[in-house]
Amino acid sequence: MQKELIGVLIIEDDALSATALSAFLSKNGFWVVGIADNAIQAEQYFIAASVDVLLVDIGIKGAKDGIMLVERLMTIKQVPVVYMSGLEDHEVLGRMKNTRPVAFLSKPYSMLNVAVSLELSVERGMAVGEKTAPPNRGIAPIKPTDEKLREKEKFLVLDDFLIFKYNYQYIRVHVKHILFIEADKNFVHIVTSAKKYILRLSIQQVSNTMAGFGFVRIHRSYIINLRAIDRFSCSEVIVGGTHLPLGRNYRGELEENLRLRKFA
């Protein structure tokens, strides 16, 4: 499972910030390979784990700052870098630019901006990896850890909004507007009250992400919004006027969710 996720190494000396970042990223489709607050620890993680992207605070503990650390790590393996900092010093920013980061997030940042920056950084890294490495650098080109990353859509829930990439844009849809989600081979159809979106995702990926946000699986091919139920019987659920099958193995979970009113 982890090999299908984007591996992120968080380098941040503020323990609370690092923990919050790790929890958010882990919940929303990333694999946090480690958290380090200094250069020595970060290099150990970088060598031992499969890192796809670095999320680096410039001001970290120890003699080396985040920029010096990135310069060192890039001699081992080239991966995309996203910096975080509250610094606005021109000399520091100039040094940072010399390491050619994909993005820079000024503190305080939003979690959504972090997720989008990481996703875009890996996409850019894949494109760079298809080219020949610059001469005389002695650094291997960037390569994705798994071919499935080329097709993977970004899909997360944040502040009651479902956020996903559709037609090269990031779309934000309030969860209350989603009626149901239907599986179609290697795709899912996200059906809202106004529009249908087709994404290259598995129904299981969607089910894992939507769990706890008022959605429940009623069939191997359907996930519904509990708020949108018109009525249901022992064999079907009617959502927004659409009749959907209710699988025998999923009936108990639906009734339990309705009984506990987890969607309220």
Structure, described:
This protein is an alpha/beta fold and 264 residues long. It folds into 2 domains: 2-148, Rossmann fold; 153-260, LytTr DNA-binding domain (OB fold (Dihydrolipoamide Acetyltransferase, E2P)), CATH 2.40.50.1020. Helix content is 29%, strand content 31%. It has helices spanning 15-27, 39-48, 66-73, 90-98, 111-129, 203-210, 251-260, and strands at residues 6-11, 30-36, 53-57, 81-85, 103-106, 155-158, 161-166, 169-174, 178-184, 187-192, 196-199, 215-219, 222-225, 229-232, 236-239, 242-245. Strands 2-1-3-4-5 form a 5-stranded parallel beta sheet, with helices on both faces. A 5-stranded antiparallel beta sheet has the order 11-10-9-13-12. Strands 6-7-8 form a 3-stranded antiparallel beta sheet, covered by helices on one side. Strand 15 and strand 16 form a beta hairpin. The two termini are 32 Å apart. Mean pLDDT is 80; it is low at 126-153.
Characteristics of this structure?
single chain, 264 residues, alpha/beta, Rossmann fold, OB fold (Dihydrolipoamide Acetyltransferase, E2P), 2 domains, 5-stranded parallel beta sheet
Task: Explain the layout of strands and helices.
Blueprint: E1 6-11, H1 15-27, E2 30-36, H2 39-48, E3 53-57, H3 66-73, E4 81-85, H4 90-98, E5 103-106, H5 111-129, E6 155-158, E7 161-166, E8 169-174, E9 178-184, E10 187-192, E11 196-199, H6 203-210, E12 215-219, E13 222-225, E14 229-232, E15 236-239, E16 242-245, H7 251-260
Parallel strand pairs: 1-2, 1-3, 3-4, 4-5
Antiparallel strand pairs: 6-7, 7-8, 9-10, 9-13, 10-11, 12-13, 14-15, 15-16
